[in-house]
Design goal:
There is one protein chain. This protein has 151 residues and is mainly α. It has a domain of 86 residues. The protein is 56% helix and 0% strand. It contains three helices and no strands. Helix 1 packs antiparallel against helix 2. The protein is elongated. It starts with 45 loop residues before the first helix and ends with a helix. Pfam families: DUF6264.
């Protein structure tokens, strides 16, 4: 220790403002877990349940209607004379119009059930799926039209 001064400083945890002794985070023990049963339960909305069920039934009817109309799209093949149409593209369009509404219905049904179980609003799912069914059927019809027009 020739001519060098040593300075000792204290850490910021020693500068207390309160009069209570500091508590280490390890001294307090593990953090208590929340009990699932003590959480407030969401109320079941009966109007949402009944509205969702009735909209799902209407969505199933719309899917049946879309399937019947997709089968009627096969009449577009009659417009093809000696091969002026692309039959492969038309087949893809018919299959899109036939299957896409049912895929949308199954997804909407599963999502609605999950939302009803966790007690969230679910009536919007069949409404959105109805828009999806109409849109996908129109995409399939457009594909059929594109196959009938183009060679």
């Amino acid at each position: 220790m020739s001519g060098e001064k040593r300075v000792y400083t204290l850490g910021p945890e020693t500068y207390r403002v309160s009069t209570e002794p500091p508590v280490s985070e390890y001294a307090a023990g593990p953090t208590p877990r929340r009990d699932v049963n003590s959480l407030p339960q969401r109320r079941r909305r009966r109007w949402d349940l009944w509205l969702t069920i009735s909209l799902l039934v209407l969505l199933a009817a719309a899917s049946v209607t879309a399937s019947v109309l997709a089968v009627l799209l096969t009449y577009a093949f009659n417009a093809c004379g000696s091969g002026a149409c692309s039959r492969d593209v038309m087949n893809i369009g018919v299959w899109v119009s036939l299957t896409a509404p049912w895929i949308a219905f199954v997804i909407a049904l599963a999502l609605s059930i999950v939302l009803l179980i966790v007690r969230r609003l679910a009536f919007w799912v069949p409404l959105a799926a109805f828009v999806l069914v109409v849109g996908l059927w129109n995409v399939g019809a457009f594909i059929v039209w594109a196959g009938a027009v183009g060679a």
